[in-house]
Automatic annotation (TrEMBL):
<dbReference type="InterPro" id="IPR029058">
    <property type="entry name" value="AB_hydrolase_fold"/>
</dbReference>
<dbReference type="GO" id="GO:0016787">
    <property type="term" value="F:hydrolase activity"/>
</dbReference>
<keyword id="KW-0732">Signal</keyword>
<keyword id="KW-0378">Hydrolase</keyword>
<feature type="signal peptide">
    <location>
        <begin position="1"/>
        <end position="22"/>
    </location>
</feature>
<protein>
    <submittedName>
        <fullName>Alpha/beta hydrolase</fullName>
    </submittedName>
</protein>
Length: 459
């Protein structure tokens, strides 16, 4: 599709499906998604048991087909069930399920847990929610009716699983999911909390990398992006061969600063996160995408007509930034790409921060794949919808995606569970005030280990 280059100042209302737009049910016949044609294979997990608990494992019917499951119940069960949602598992045919990162701790404290492989791979949050909910509903049957029904069920997840955990307690999900579970609380970790923004970010970064790297495209999607990527990297990085990449002093530095502004503004650990080669490769691997989330949708979800790309911090763009924004490619999202559906959840379920239970989040400051800006957007949605009193957010001084240490996991879990069980609201971080977030010591309050390359917090 040929597109013209237009001024960055031109705006289109609702170029993405915004949380403030009134939902319109999509009842028209839809073309088959690529995701609907894919075949996935579930297998009984080989996960070994641990002392002090009984582990159940097998297969059950999911949204897309069979899914694998794990359920573990301690000998001294406290009656509470924690559903664990795993992160993005790639695009392969084989489905896998894994225990939560704090499995041993959960068992030691008397919590039962359950986890699904989901019945599909790719970024299929709809299947993730439905399959996790269906597993929660079948807890009794799959444990051979040996236990009473849980006194309360909770949900936690990481990365894409954080998206699932957050969306699972949304008002829209509770109204439209096929399998409905009233979770007592949610803990999304390193999660996609604003799904439209995540795909906006991936599209924006790769578009700007191509433009600044000297190979700006005049068409969307940029089908030649991956072919050109080695040359694009040469134009941006003086070294991209190791674990940490080095941006060059002109275009690479501009790209870094554009990325900082797009992902939450100045903050500790951002520059280290920008240099992490594994995260750069993950983001750049999405370049040239057609905006359908690799077949999860049928129409383009990405638009940048209202985006202004800046590498400076002043109140107004510089002349160079104005010229750059006039030159960069513009495209428009299809407003019908992810409408509410008559057959259940949206293909990409909505997150509007409309929830009625305690939600505790945790995010690393340097995460370049699922950026810290998710936390800012989530709080802004909660403030708009009057739910911020039920939200606690914590910043961790680390560069990796979901790079939490055990002490941070356990502390967050304990505080969340005490709160969800009727205790006081725990402390969190201010994620919105720019001067607070930019402070050199930001994130020290809940960081429990000093990572390589990150300044230590002084007592």
């Amino acid at each position: 599709m040929k597109l013209t280059r237009t001024s960055a100042a031109s705006l289109l209302m609702c170029s993405l499906i915004l949380s403030s737009c009134a939902p319109v049910m999509n009842t028209a016949a839809q073309p088959t998604r690529e995701q609907d044609t894919r075949v996935f294979t579930a297998a009984v997990p080989s996960t070994p048991s641990i002392a002090g608990a009984t582990l159940y494992k097998g297969l059950y019917a999911g949204e897309h087909g069979q899914a694998s499951y794990l359920i573990e119940v301690p000998e001294k069960w406290n009656g509470k069930l924690v559903m664990y949602a795993h992160g993005y598992a790639g695009t392969g045919a084989a489905l896998t399920v894994a225990p939560p990162p704090i499995r041993e701790y959960l068992v030691s404290q008397g919590y039962a847990w359950a986890a699904s492989s989901y019945s599909s791979n790719y970024y299929d949050v709809r299947s993730g929610i439905e399959d996790t909910n269906a597993l929660a509903q079948q807890f009794g049957a799959l444990t051979q009716s040996k236990y009473p029904a849980p006194s309360a069920t909770y949900i936690m997840g990481v990365s894409m699983g954080g998206n699932i955990a957050a969306a699972a307690v949304e008002t829209e999900t509770l109204a439209s999911a096929k399998h409905k579970v009233n979770y007592a609380a949610s803990m999304p970790l390193c999660g996609v909390l604003d799904p439209p923004y995540e795909f906006q970010w991936l599209g924006d970064y790769t578009l700007n990398a191509q433009e600044l790297g000297g190979y700006g495209s005049s068409t969307y999607p940029a089908s030649s992006f991956q072919t050109l990527l080695p040359d694009i990297k040469v134009g941006l990085f003086s070294d991209s061969s190791g674990d940490l990449w080095t941006p060059n002093t002109v275009q690479g530095t501009r790209l870094r600063d554009i990325a900082q502004n797009l992902t939450g503004g100045p903050r500790p650990v951002f520059e280290l996160g920008f240099k992490v080669g594994a995260l750069q490769n993950a983001v750049l691997s999405t370049g040239g995408s057609d905006g359908t989330l690799t077949g999860i949708l049928t129409k383009n979800f990405y638009g940048n007509q209202n985006a202004v790309y800046r590498w400076t911090q002043g109140q107004t763009p510089t002349a160079a930034e104005v010229a750059y924004n006039q030159a960069v490619l513009r495209t428009t999202a299809d407003p019908s790409a992810n409408l509410p559906r008559a057959d259940g959840l949206r293909w990409l379920p909505a997150i509007n921060a409309q929830f009625k239970v305690p939600v505790l989040t945790m995010h690393t400051l340097g995460d370049f794949y699922v950026p810290f800006a998710h936390e800012q957007h989530y709080l802004q949605m909660a403030q708009k919808n009057g739910t911020s009193g039920l939200l606690v957010q914590r910043a961790i001084r680390a560069a990796g995606h979901c790079e939490f240490v055990g002490a941070e996991f356990v502390e967050a879990f304990n505080d969340w569970m005490k709160w969800a069980s009727g205790g006081p609201k725990p402390a969190g971080d201010d994620v919105l005030t720019p001067s607070v977030v930019a402070d050199a010591k930001y994130g020290c309050q809940f960081t429990r280990a000093t990572r390589t390359g990150v300044d230590a917090c002084q007592p």
